[in-house]
Amino acid sequence: MGKILKIILAFFMFFAATFCVEAAPVVKITGLEFDNSDNIAIIKSVGKIFPKTQQTPEDNDKSLRTPENVITKCFLDNPDRVFVDITNAVLAGNQRTYTFKNSSLNNVKISQFSTNPHTVRIVFEYNKKFDPKNFAVYANDRQILIRYSNNLVGSEKFKTIYNNMTSGERKVDFLESVTYTSETKEKILNVSDSGEIQYQTVKDDEKNIKLKALYYIDKVSSVSNGLMVKGSGAISLKSSFVLENPTRVVYDIENAIVAQDLRNKSFSLPTNNALVVNGVVTSRDVLRVGQNNPSTARLVIQGSDAKNYRLVLSPDLQGLFIAKRTDVLNAKLTETTSSVLSYEAKNAGENLNVVNVVFTNPVAVTTFEENSKFYVDLQNVDDFNQKAIDELHKNPGYTGICAQKIASEKTRLIFYLKDSTAINAQISPDAKELRVYFKKRVKNPPQVVAPSKPQESKEQEQEKEKQRPSTIKQMYSVVIDPGHGGSDVGATRSNIYEKDITLVVSKLLDEYLKKQGVYTYLTRDKDKTVELSERSDFSNSVSPDVFISVHVNSSVKEDIIGVETHWYHPQSLDFAKKVHAKLASSRNLSKWETVDRGLFQSKFYVINHTNAPAILVEIGFISNPNERRELIKEKRQEEVAKAIADGIMEYLKGRK
Fold first, then answer.
1. For residue 2, is pLDDT > 80?
2. What is the pLDDT of residue 236?
3. Range of the domain at 296
4. Has residue 9 been placed in a domain?
5. Structure pTM?
6. Distance (Å, rounded) from C-alpha 574 to C-alpha 572?
C-alpha cells in the first residue's frame, strides 16, 4: 500500500511540475506597428517580457525558473525572407499579413507557429532595397523592436530646415509615404466535407502610416558657449515663434521622438546675465526639451535673452548647436570649409518658385526670418560666388537677394520678401544642396463689411487681450482616460453602463481643455476595449503633464452617493487636491445633491504605472437610483467635465 502511495505521489508531483511549466506566464502579442521611416517594426504586446532566464529567489531548482522569451532569427531564400520566432508567446486573434508599397519589404506575416511550446513567428519577405546586415532584434522587459533597415540618414529626400507654409502650400512633403494593407485569416464556421477547417481572407482598407520618427533626440550636452542637442536620423525644423510673459522662443522638430529620460527637462544656457543665489550661479536662460505631441519634439529657450539665441544645424543633420548669436558668429563650428558652386532660380508650380544653391562640401546652416527678410547663415562657407548670385535678382517670390561675409568663413544669404510670401527651406541629406521655396499667398476676395461697432477704449482692449486664450496652447498636455470600454462595460445598473458615461464626460473634458489651449490625448475616443497596460503605456509614450482617469462608482448599498478622487504616487497628491477641490466644491455638492467622500491613496493600475502625475476620479455612484438618473443627464455631465477641467488648469498654471 505504501509503495502504491509513493508511486501516486511521484506521479502527482511530476504532473504538478509539468502543469507549472505549462501554466507559466506568456507574452500576448497583439500585432505589429511600423515606422513610416521604413526602418522599424514594433511588436505590440501585453505582459512582461523575459529576454533572459530569471530565477525565483527561493532556490536554484530549474523547474522554478520563469521561462524566457527566446528570440531567434533565420534567413531563407526563394523567396528572400527572414523570420523571427518568439517563444512563450501567444498571438491575440488570427494570423495576419501586411503588404507594403514604397518599402524595402514586400510583406510581413505574423502567426502562431506552434502551441507546444507557444511560439509566434513573424516572417519578413523583402526586396532588393533590403540589406540583411541592417536586420536586428532588440528586446527588454517591456518591448520587442525589430530594425529592418537603416535608411533614416540615407534617405534621398530633402529635409526641411525652416517652414512657415501650411501643409496645403508645401509642394511635396519631405518624406514619401509608406503604405500597407493588412489581411487576416479567419475561420469559416461551415466546415467542408473533408472535415478540414476552412479559412477566408479579410482585407482591411489601405493604411497610410503616419510617420512616428525621423529623428531621435537622445542627448543634450554643454559645449563651449552653448548647448548641443544630438540624436540619430535627420532633423526637420519648423519656423520658430516667440511668446511673451515670460519670453520664450519655441522650435518644433517635425517627426521627432525625444528619449524618455530627456522629456520635460531643463538645461542651463551659458549667459553673462546669470543670477547668483546663496552663492550658487543660476542661469537666467534655459533650454526646455519636451515631446509636444507624439510626432513633434519641442525645444523652448526661455529667459530675458531668449530672442538672441540661434540654432545651427550641423552638416550631418544630426545635431543642433544652440548659443547666443554673437557666440555663433565667433565660433568655428566645423573643420570643413565650403564654397558655392551654383545658384538657380526657377518656377516650381502655381505661385511657387524655388532657389537652388549647390555647395562644394556639406554646410552648417542657421535660418531665421526678421523684418520681411529671410536669412540663411552658412557657418562654413568662405566664397559665395558673387557673379552667379547677380543673376538671381528677378524672381517672383522675392524682390532681391544679396550675399555678404559676416565673419571669417561665414556667409549670409538675405532674401528680401514680398508681402504674403510663405517659405519652405530644405537641405539635401548630404548637406551639399539648399532649396528655398517661396509661395505667393493669394489674397482672399474682399468681404462685405458689417456695420462697425463703437470703438473700444484702450483699457477694454487690454482687458480682452488678457482674457484671450494663449496662442502657445499653454504648452501643456493632458492624457484623458475614459474608464472601461468595449467588452469591459464597468459598473452596470438598469441597462446603464459606466463605460458610456465615462466616455461622454471625457469627451466633454477634452473639449473644455482644448478651449484653454491644452494639447489633449484620449486613451479611447469610442466604445472599444483597451487594456490597463495599454492606457498607461500610451500615456508614458506621450509624456504628458498630467494623466486623469474618469470613472463612475458602485456599491452593493444603494444609499451611498458622492464623489471621490484617488492618487497613488506622492507627486500626484497636489494634482489630486486641486481637481478634487473643484469637483467637490460646496457649490457643486449642493447643486448635485451629493457628498464629498474625500481623497484616497489607492493603488489602481493606471495611476500606479503612469509616469506623469496621475489621478482617478469617481464622479458619482451608478448604484444609487437618484445619482444614476443625474449622471446620464447632459447638464450634470457638462458640469462635472467643467469642474475637472478647472481643477486641471489650476494645477498646471500653479506649478513652479
1. no
2. 80
3. 215-330
4. no
5. 0.46
6. 6
Half-sphere exposure in the Cβ direction for 503 (13 Å, CA) = 18
Same domain, yes or no: 230 and 293: yes
11, amino acid identity:
F
Q: Are 553 and 629 in contact (CB under 8 A)?
A: no
pLDDT band of 232, cuts 50, 70, 90: confident
Q: What pLDDT does residue 6 have?
A: 52
Q: Are 98 and 180 in contact (CB under 8 A)?
A: yes
Question: Which neighbouring-strand residues pair with 28?
Answer: 46, 90
Whether residue 245 is found in the same domain as residue 357: no
CATH number at residue 547: 3.40.630.40
560-618 pLDDT, tens digit per residue, is 999 999 999 999 999 999 999 999 999 999 999 999 999 999 989 999 999 899 999 99
Q: What is the CATH number of the domain that holds 247?
A: 2.60.40.3500
Indicate the number of domains in the chain.
4
The set of cell numbers assigned to 398 is 522675392
Last residue of a domain, one of 330, 364, 391: 330
Instruction: State how far the Cα of 418 lies from the Cα of 395, in Å rounded to an integer.
Output: 10
Residue 59 lies in a domain: yes
Write the CB contacts of 619 (distance below 8 Å, at least 6 apart in sequence): 501, 505, 550, 551, 552, 553, 563, 583, 631, 640
Average pLDDT score over residue span 504-529: 91
The reported pLDDT for the residue numbered 176 is 37
Asked if residues 135 and 82 have their Cβ atoms less than 8 Å apart, the reply is yes
Same-domain check for residues 479 and 612: yes
Look up residue 451 and give its DSSP letter: P
